[in-house]
Amino acid sequence: MSAIKNSFHEALVILTSHENAKTRLTKAWVDTLEHLASDELPDSIRDQFNRMRKRLTARRPVNNENPIVATIRKMSPAEAARFGCEIVNMYADVMAADHPVHLRIVDVAAEPQSEKAEGKDGVPDFLSRH
């Protein structure tokens, strides 16, 4: 899984570079994500990744052009940016697959109030003006 995380991390670094959206998307996909095997990906992103791969190879290449380059060349910058956002979301899902977040709901009304933490008027001491 760490190779997958590294590939997505490298893609994010490229996506945040100074180049235009289409160039960033092309480099991020071709240089870091294109080689990933979908059966190695977490279940949570496998279908999305396969759909993206299919959408990124939809255009017929010209001469010896990579199909991904041909497809991205025909995109608007806004469309390329949306693909970039999808990659960011997949990266978040990859990270969450290894480190699920466990939230605990706390009922603050049931929590005992510390008399040291609050002044006489119910305002914490660090917020009151001296």
Report strand %: under 5%
Order of helices and strands: HHHHH
What structural class do helix, strand and pairing data support?
A: mainly alpha
What global shape is seen?
elongated
Task: Give a brief outline of the structure.
This protein has 130 residues and is mainly α. The chain has one domain (2-98).
List the helices and strands and how they pair.
Elements: H1 2-15, H2 21-33, H3 43-55, H4 67-73, H5 77-98
Q: Could you name the key traits of this structure?
A:
single chain; 130 residues; mainly alpha; 0% strand; elongated
Can you give a write-up of this model?
By secondary structure, the chain is mainly α. The chain has one domain. Helix content is 53%, strand content 0%. The protein contains 5 helices and no strands. Helix 1 (2-15) packs antiparallel against helix 2 (21-33) and helix 2 packs antiparallel against helix 4. The radius of gyration is 23 Å and the shape is elongated.
